[in-house]
Amino acid sequence: MRKVTKIEQTSIKKNKSKKLKVAAYCRVSTDSDEQLESLETQKTHYENYITSRNDWQFAGVYYDEGISGTDKAHRPELKRLIQDCRAGKIDMIITKSISRFSRNTTDCLALVRKLLELNIPVWFEKENINTGSMESELFLSILSSMAADESLSISLNSKWSIKKRFENGTFKISYPPYGYNWDGETMTINPKQAEIVRRIFSEALSGKGIATIAAELNREQIPTKRGGHWSPSGIRGMLANEKYCGDCLYQKTWSDSAYKRHLNHGEQTQYLQQNHHEPIISRKDWEAAQKLISQRANEKNISKGNEKYQNRYAFSGRIICGECGAAFKRRINYTTDGSYAAWSCKTHLADKDRCSMLFIRDNDLKLAFTTMMNKLIFAHRLILKPYAESLKQNSTSQTLIRIQQLETKLAENADKRKTLTKLMAQGFIDQVIYSQQTSELLSQADGVRKQIDALKNTTSSETAALMQTKDLLHFVEKSKMLEAFDDRIFTRFVERIVIHSRHEAAFKLKCGLTLTERM
């Protein structure tokens, strides 16, 4: 007979389960008193709710005030929350709703996936979604899209409301320019700042340059409205601001469908309300300042708009310092024999200890470009033709084959996810396995999409380089030797110039070649 020995049960003390470190995220889209009061209510609610749970440990409340949820790039507290998650300070996040977390579908899903990679789930209270136990991302994607549509609707309603206030003259300027205060209803003159405004207009009309005015104000330690330093562009903006003569021009800027703000150069209707508030500058002086600005712009060949310097000089914005990476600025140097145009590194002009790069004469740079182009005209068969052939051979064929392979892989990935869904629906696999494998497949699909995008960008850049090379080759084959600098040829073929020293410049051509020339 077999002998069986009974081993009595011993009591084993169970370890207390580790508490989850739970944090909350809140956001309000405006900084009005009502919204800030709502924010305080949310903060109190989450702090009390988290601390009331025995299995949770309060890890803080993160909140952004008066910030739109359409773009995560401008929400500092959300960024800090993600950083603390990476540092292991948080195990779970609670937020009121998807629309409070993000109204941009792409951003929302990207944030959720990023947090799931760190094994940190997000619980959306309103929708009752916990990303740690969700069967798929489909439901979250749909709700995020609804939140994005809601955001667009709110934005359109808000724009319509603001436009109506523009039209009937009831729009309130809550943040007036330097020289004015806001009393809750209208703009009132700040006497101390108004004296500085009058001084700026007076000195500008007397012929003093805006850079000199800014330097003098900084030397006297007179602060700007936000306590910073004066700049020439800031002074010019003040001189052009119609508010100083009592008028108010509405809709100077506008936002596109991606919520990016642009200066209004006629794309949207503007509204001018005259005698809106008490002026600091007489209308006569303000109009004289506008004529002065226009006159100086004409003298320097500056056109109004985002590309205001594009027609000024061929080299403008295209010369880069090889030592510090700063752009070069055109200056007029004076000698006993006269004057000449030169290009100087902006860093060197501001602080010679930070950059030792010396100025380059404008004529020397033009001669270097002309010499470089003549060498290309003379030896294009040895330089450009082999380069063009190599671009043809290495460009699209292999890249397109690789893109097709990746797209096939992406389709196989989608089929696997469909199969998983069917298996779970029929009860062959449980929810945990389904969630894990679906998450892995989605991550793989994202990686494949990124590879496809990168290859497509490479293909387009290679194609562009080949087209630019053919254009340059066609030009040099037909052209005679250049006798002088031609700015049209320069802007047609050169992307930028990198200055390595006063005696050496590298011309980076649009076709991808970089040719170095001595000066």
From TrEMBL:
<feature type="domain" description="Resolvase/invertase-type recombinase catalytic">
    <location>
        <begin position="21"/>
        <end position="169"/>
    </location>
</feature>
<dbReference type="InterPro" id="IPR011109">
    <property type="entry name" value="DNA_bind_recombinase_dom"/>
</dbReference>
<dbReference type="InterPro" id="IPR050639">
    <property type="entry name" value="SSR_resolvase"/>
</dbReference>
<feature type="domain" description="Recombinase">
    <location>
        <begin position="177"/>
        <end position="299"/>
    </location>
</feature>
<dbReference type="InterPro" id="IPR038109">
    <property type="entry name" value="DNA_bind_recomb_sf"/>
</dbReference>
<dbReference type="Pfam" id="PF07508">
    <property type="entry name" value="Recombinase"/>
</dbReference>
<keyword id="KW-0233">DNA recombination</keyword>
<dbReference type="GO" id="GO:0003677">
    <property type="term" value="F:DNA binding"/>
</dbReference>
<keyword id="KW-0238">DNA-binding</keyword>
<dbReference type="Pfam" id="PF13408">
    <property type="entry name" value="Zn_ribbon_recom"/>
</dbReference>
<protein>
    <submittedName>
        <fullName>DNA invertase Pin-like site-specific DNA recombinase</fullName>
    </submittedName>
</protein>
<dbReference type="Pfam" id="PF00239">
    <property type="entry name" value="Resolvase"/>
</dbReference>
<dbReference type="GO" id="GO:0000150">
    <property type="term" value="F:DNA strand exchange activity"/>
</dbReference>
<dbReference type="InterPro" id="IPR025827">
    <property type="entry name" value="Zn_ribbon_recom_dom"/>
</dbReference>
<dbReference type="InterPro" id="IPR006119">
    <property type="entry name" value="Resolv_N"/>
</dbReference>
<dbReference type="InterPro" id="IPR036162">
    <property type="entry name" value="Resolvase-like_N_sf"/>
</dbReference>
